[in-house]
């Protein structure tokens, strides 16, 4: 009798999107506050970070000495900039691995596996995806000032909604922080990639409200799931659950 093949453990092999601030807040909440450097576990983390920085910058790196000199402006600007960059990268790397480890075991963090997403039709998300290409059109052929519209979006909107391709029944909206993309990826790249998403449930949204023409219609609040059930109307068919995405990455096959 042939032995069943052991299922290969899937691991993240490339980061596409990581909302560092949201991840940091989540880890702070789980830990009951910022890292406590008096504990052995966190001492080991700090020692590992310092050792990696020391190896990258050169022998004899002293973190506390550097911090004091940096505050007193006694460090060369180029060296200071390079050191800050390396320290920032190491801390981000630690944050990323900590987040994936903790969130993977947390049922309150929703995981969407092997997902392809797309922008809802006639939504601001779809405009955002293609707005860089609008510069090729003559201004006189466009009824609105696209530069002003782009500026307005930059100032007024930080998150953009995407739907999940082939979700049956359609029930979810994944929302992305436009500033959290990594490795030069952007919103439009998500439509071509099958990714794993870690996300937090934050509320609900009427799918009709995603239409750009209704984006600024504040005349009627979005109904809650409870009110829809009480009313017994068909509105529930258009009410989707909204998830803020914290992490997106490529898994091995």
TrEMBL record:
Q: Which domain of life is it from?
A: Bacteria
Query: What Pfam families does the record point to?
Result: DUF6414
Q: Which InterPro entries match?
A: DUF6414
Question: What is the protein name given in its UniProt record?
Answer: Uncharacterized protein
